[in-house]
Amino acid sequence: MSPASSAFVPALLAARVIPVAAGDGIGPEIMEAVLGIVKAADPSLRFHQVTVGLKAYEAGQMAGIGEDTWEAIDEHRVILKGPIMTPQGGGYKSVNVTMRKTLGLYANLRPCVSYHPWVTALQPKMDVVIIRENEEDTYAGIEHRQSDEVYQCLKLITRPGCERIVRYAFEYARTHGRGKVTCMTKDNIMKITDGLFHQVFDEIAAEYPEIQSNHMIIDIGTARMASRPTDFDVVVTANLYGDILSDVAAEVAGSVGLAGSSNIGGDCAMFEAVHGSAPDIAGQDIANPSGLLVSAVMMLAHLGRTEPATDIHNAWLCTLEEGLHTADIYRDGISTTRVGTRTFAEAVTARLGQKPQKIAAVTYRADASEPVAHLDVPTRAHTPAVKTLVGVDVFLNWDDADRDPDVLGGKLLTVAGPEFELSLITNRGVKCYPNGNPRTLRTDHWRCRFLLLKPPTDLREGSVTIPNLLLRLADAGLDAVKTENLYTFDGVRGYSQAQGE
Amino acid sequence: MSPASSAFVPALLAARVIPVAAGDGIGPEIMEAVLGIVKAADPSLRFHQVTVGLKAYEAGQMAGIGEDTWEAIDEHRVILKGPIMTPQGGGYKSVNVTMRKTLGLYANLRPCVSYHPWVTALQPKMDVVIIRENEEDTYAGIEHRQSDEVYQCLKLITRPGCERIVRYAFEYARTHGRGKVTCMTKDNIMKITDGLFHQVFDEIAAEYPEIQSNHMIIDIGTARMASRPTDFDVVVTANLYGDILSDVAAEVAGSVGLAGSSNIGGDCAMFEAVHGSAPDIAGQDIANPSGLLVSAVMMLAHLGRTEPATDIHNAWLCTLEEGLHTADIYRDGISTTRVGTRTFAEAVTARLGQKPQKIAAVTYRADASEPVAHLDVPTRAHTPAVKTLVGVDVFLNWDDADRDPDVLGGKLLTVAGPEFELSLITNRGVKCYPNGNPRTLRTDHWRCRFLLLKPPTDLREGSVTIPNLLLRLADAGLDAVKTENLYTFDGVRGYSQAQGE
């Protein structure tokens, strides 16, 4: 069994106690407002206040998360979190990054909805959910400076990582009655990494024939999100792309202050507003609790408590369309009454059971409960590919001979044997030996591709050829700073060729 | 002298013959239209037709570029290019990628301008130039599949690469009378690579005190480009970010069909429209030549021919504001006459010497000639940092013992000595040894950090410790698929720490 299948375990339906962390700035007052509404709609829930944010930082927790919080999450598998202020400098770590990495929260969900004309929006008709992979990509945080001039970050994309985010997207679409999932990558350039994401998307889409699926290149996809968001329903994409895309979508929906989000893991989940802690308006009873309220609705739906989720969402829409608006969205001519945080929350509570008249009402279906936890589809059967070593890319830090690649090539020809032949040298991915172009910028960082003259008979034989090559390079006074082995997988080349190769 | 300084050589002022490649689809007719206008405005120019696109592909040139084209670029250092159709499959290569890599075209320029109400735009007031680094980042095309499950792409950011794109952006702003340059990165996550881009931006910005400068995180920066583009003037950013950002900017400007672009190298440059070859409307005299015309204006300005550049640009604006529109932008109530390609070009030619009345007129200043070629500022003096080897990250493909990191850690402890100590093991950047979290997804790809117990006395001693470690790993039956050496530079750590390290 692949480890990926451990991502889906039933756990959350039992939760009746919700750990809540009020957070900093406006956090306590919006949390109080939200919990008042939730209690009224779902009286059997209880809430357990835990310590996250400044109080935890001040108590010496460098990641801003109290021990009580970890214990509560371990027990209840969910947390509703207010906005956090991370102190600058001094080694303090982000609460969100720490929770995401520690809890394996692999999916970030951002519904982006317009409420025009009640809330001004560049795109008045918009109802998109962006599902962003949350752990991989260049955000895995693996960076190395390799020479005086050259710095590197690894972009990692894995099959199990792709499988679970893509499957989550289709399961989400199915349980929330959404008809289309769009995948966005840049696989016309990154054929191996983004190519994998796209391929896994196609494989899993085939299991959901009732849901439309398509793929777009991320550049034009993001542009269309800004100009024609009604083309989209659910979008699934890699970490960096999703980061940019979800900010664009929220911005043109005009509703960043009203937006909720969730971070979903295999056996726990975290829900929070998109906005920050706004310390400048804290304690004045003027903050808009809507973002956190929408997050709480997402949490209830995730927990299978679809009836209170539906009631709260519709009561909130009623309040919006009646023009009872907090100061951040109040506009003369559209709004009817400027209300504070508490009054807004009381207005929502008073409308529980009502449906909006102008904005479309929302229904969370009873079968929408626990989309992840209910998922008992086993991880795709998969026979590991046969991996064969065919060579190695050795990266040299070299700054001699006016950086003439022909000089370097000459040295390497003699070092390559007897196991390898020198195939080519590139600088920043552009071939500069043999037959380089004098226009190519030459940094002090050279990728030298050595191909094995005959395939190794076993793993051990292959494993020693590369260190032996590195020892010969050291003897020649050359400075190898990194290596990347070259493999075929089931006979298919597992590495990109250089421009001009 | 650093190789970066070879980026700026005076060469283009002498050009009086312009190689032009009509390209495919609508290419020939829009090129004919554009050259008619340019000849009328700048009679001393001559044009040399060269072969790019389908004709070259059909002649067996896999990159779609004829030998005559390479020769003409070598002689005249510039090319005006029509849109190209790349045949699918069969090993054909993109003309643009090939030219960019072969000619070292490091800067991609995309002016994004709104012409509202004459051309409908989501953002009616917009005049932004996006300057995108064109060679580095994940687009260097260096990808490796490293195990059954894990695929990798290298993101490379170099100091000379950053220096020349950032300097180009400030030189462009200075010579074109633009007052502000905004840098966008994601250096809150990628502190080493994007951190370098941001740092170089700050260093070079200090040399241009008369130009405002600021930095934004790319996610919110792209969102603001969609919602408040008047916040921006010139934007400079890395390759991938620029790819997405420039598509968003062009889309909200509503003028993709009118947009030109340039690709600038150290000693040559290529100019082309942003749109494609539109084969469905080819040969019908209905295509809009504006994108290629704007590109030709950018070329004339780049060549220092500022007077004809100004004349053509203003004549084109006159034609737009008088409502003589091709079918793609024709709208009842705004447009006055629907015109074909030829008639539109004749209308622009007839207005040479006129200035627009409603749209602001453009002036290319006489001192705007050859911004790059005039640049005799030497490359920044730079003493290479002292690099000291402190350890190595070895990446293992390991799928034994239920992927229990404690089992792997136990094996590695015995292999590390005598030179190294095992510092930690991560999976996708998350620490899983020592003291891992059972929730962490475990792929078959493990990064194992070994730190040297004492610094090497010389390069040779350091160079042999790593192959010796690899040989011990091979003896233990472990499969090392890549290495990344760990260095300090002038005593500063040159690698990221893992979450939890």
Features:
23% strand, homodimer, 501 residues, disordered N terminus, 6-stranded antiparallel sheet, alpha/beta, 10-stranded mixed sheet, 13 helices
List the helices and strands and how they pair.
Two copies of one chain form a homodimer.
Chain A: E1 17-21, H1 27-41, E2 46-49, H2 54-58, H3 67-76, E3 78-81, H4 95-103, E4 105-113, E5 127-133, E6 143-145, E7 150-158, H5 159-175, E8 180-185, H6 193-205, E9 212-217, H7 218-227, E10 234-237, H8 239-253, E11 260-265, E12 269-273, H9 290-302, H10 306-321, E13 324-325, E14 337-338, H11 341-350, E15 387-397, H12 405-416, E16 420-427, E17 430-433, E18 445-452, H13 459-475, E19 480-489, E20 492-493
Structure commentary:
2 copies of one chain form a homodimer. With 501 residues, chain A is an alpha/beta fold. The two termini of chain A are 39 Å apart. In chain A, helix 5 (159-175) packs parallel to helix 6 and helix 7 runs parallel beside helix 8. Chain A has helices spanning 27-41, 54-58, 67-76, 95-103, 159-175, 193-205, 218-227, 239-253, 290-302, 306-321, 341-350, 405-416, 459-475; strands at residues 17-21, 46-49, 78-81, 105-113, 127-133, 143-145, 150-158, 180-185, 212-217, 234-237, 260-265, 269-273, 324-325, 337-338, 387-397, 420-427, 430-433, 445-452, 480-489, 492-493. In chain A, the strands form 4 sheets. Chain A has a 10-stranded mixed sheet with strand order 2-1-3-12-11-4-5-10-8-9, with helices on both faces. In chain A, strands 17-16-18-15-19-20 form a 6-stranded antiparallel sheet, covered by helices on one side. Helices cover 32% and strands 23% of the residues of chain A. The longest helix of chain A is centred in the middle third of the chain and has 17 residues, at 159-175. The interface between A and B is large, with 114 and 115 residues. Strand 19 of chain A pairs antiparallel with strand 19 (480-489) of chain B.
